[in-house]
Amino acid sequence: MADYARLISGPKGTPVWFIDRHPMRVFKWSPEFDAYCESPIAAIWYNLIGLPIHLFDHAALFAIGKLFGTPIQVDRATASKSRLSFARICIEIDITKPPPEEIILDICGRETVQQVKWDKIPAYCLECRHVGHSSEVCYAAGKVERPPKRNYNNVTPRQQHHGINGSQGGNVPTNHKDRKQQGKGKEMEAQSSRGPDASDPLDREWSGPDIMGDF
Questions:
Q1: Is-contact 119 44, C-beta < 8 A?
Q2: Alpha-carbon gap, residue 201 to 137, rounded angstroms
Q3: CB-count burial class (<10 Å; 0-12, 13-18, 19+) for 70
Q4: Where would I find the H helices in 34-154?
């Protein structure tokens, strides 16, 4: 059941998966399935803020979930009661209808207002019957201009590197070989600027007394 909820609710709380940059919707099959229309039934997570601890029961949580739609599962922290600040439940709802932000619970004959906080609910277009945009911005219905098609086969060429301070005259190494050659050139310039007297101290001949003796 956990795998089913993960597939239905999507990777980031939205019921859309991207396969090679192409959107794919996963939902439960029904006899009314139409390949050209997306179902408005989606799995959404919601939180019951400040729910009384005696309602952290599987049967009670599913009974509350049936007030909104079809409950699927509760998260691990809710099931183990390791986080009592809110209960988290995943349910299937009709995303064309606005979900309630609070409900009235009858607890032992006393009515209690229960706050409900929903995860991001994707928009659903009633014009083209697809998930991802609302009817007000549907280009299929002629509400807005159709966006240009993306061409994923063309790769934008990299811009040429400029010199320091944005000047085009400077030569900037673009690969490892150019950087290595440039480093050797700078080293030769540094040695030539020091002159013959500025050689490496390790190459100088010792002019003091002979303390090693003859070997």
A1: yes
A2: 76
A3: middle
A4: 58-65, 76-80
DSSP letter string, 111-132: EEEEEEEE-PPPPEETTTTEES
**Could you tell me the two tokens for 132?**
């991802």
- Residue 157 pLDDT > 90: no
Q: DSSP label at 108?
A: T
Residues 6+ apart with CB under 8 A from 117: 46, 47, 49, 86, 101
- Is the entire prediction scored with pTM above 0.85? no
The two beta strands, 70-74 and 86-94, are antiparallel
**β-strand partners of 73:** 90
- 33-73 pLDDT, tens digit per residue, is 777 788 888 888 999 999 999 999 999 999 999 999 989 88
**Average pLDDT rounded to a whole number, residues 141-155:** 71
Output 157 or 18, whichever has higher pLDDT. 18
Least confident of 71-75, 116-120, 136-140, 202-206: 202-206
Give 115's strand partners: 49, 102
Long-range CB contacts for residues 69-77, cutoff 8 Å, separation at least 24: 69/41, 69/93, 69/94, 72/1, 72/4, 72/5, 72/8, 72/43, 73/1, 73/2, 73/5, 75/45
What angle (nearest 5°) sits at the alpha carbon of residue 81, between those of residues 78 and 85? 75
